[in-house]
Amino acid sequence: MLIDAHVHLDKYGDLLDEALEQIETERIFTVATAMDIASYLELRKIGDRSELVLPTFGIHPRRAAEYANRLPELGRNIETSPAIGEIGLDFHWVKDTSTYSAQRKVLEFFIAAAAEQNKFVNLHTKAGEKEILDLLEKYDVRRAIIHWYSGPLDILRAMIDFGCYFTIGVEVHYSEHIKAIAKLIPDHLLLTETDNPGALKWLNKNDEIGMPMAIQNVVNKVAELRQSTPEQTEDLVHDNFARLLANDPALNDYLITAFKRTLS
Ligand SMILES: [Zn+2]
Q1: How much distance in Å is there from the Cα of 12 to the middle of ligand 1?
Q2: The pTM of the whole model exceeds 0.85
Q3: How far is the CA of 7 from the centre of ligand 1 (A)?
């Protein structure tokens, strides 16, 4: 089973039906990450339509400034979410430095909740890689997916030593740095993602909407780089994701029947 560990399903608009159909016919287990509260509420509705979609609550670092003084509201939504994401820091693309303290405040709130509720996290780390690793260590959050890592290799190695999982995504087709990272990640920590629907458009500065089957191209490329086969890479990523979810207390009472069937 293909695993897409980071997708913005609520951004598909008119193409949502088609995207869900592809997810079902191609059997792609999909972690649907939120940008903010409205996005999460939308994802929960989408999640009701497919047993292969896991909606998760987070506040994207771009949106953090709006929520820094609304932590109790965030807490109530975290309670209902089986996992956490998208959360993180962005000190690179977000140029407004006045938001950075809010980003830190919101992120630490989520990490503390993840530790307390034993939920896995899905992290955006752009130029905040070291700070994020420090936070994971401080709260001993071991079940972390680092999404689209593109930072320095020494911090990548420290994150690997800590046991973080890493998603390789569509930039693996274009960037030598990402190709190097795709080769460096140890077998047991490798995951895949698309960051659909906007990632290809963002990378290529065109109108291309990423559809769910873009995950197959990522798997094929990762397999080639790691001198493996697409089938072996798909199985490896599946086993890693299964390990990440194994014995997850929050997911026990959540509907991931399709995925659980494939675990046995
Ligand atoms: Zn994202």
Answers
A1: 13
A2: yes
A3: 6
State the average pLDDT over residues 172-186.
97
What is the 195 CA–ligand 1 centroid distance (Å)? 5
Distance from the alpha carbon of residue 93 to the mean position of ligand 1, in angstroms = 13
- pLDDT value of residue 246: 80
Q: What is the DSSP string of the chain?
A: -EEEEEE-GGG-GGGHHHHHHHHHHHTEEEEEE-SSHHHHHHHHHHHTT-TTEEEEB---GGGGGGTTT-HHHHHHHHHH-SSEEEEE--SSS---GGGHHHHHHHHHHHHHHHHHHT--EEEE-TT-HHHHHHHHHHHT---EEEET--S-HHHHHHHHHHT-EEEE-GGGGT-HHHHHHHHHS-GGGEEE---TTTHHHHHHTS-PPPPTTHHHHHHHHHHHHTT--HHHHHHHHHHHHHHHHTT-HHHHTS--HHHHHHH-
Ion ligand 1: residue ranges with CB closer than 5 A: 86, 195
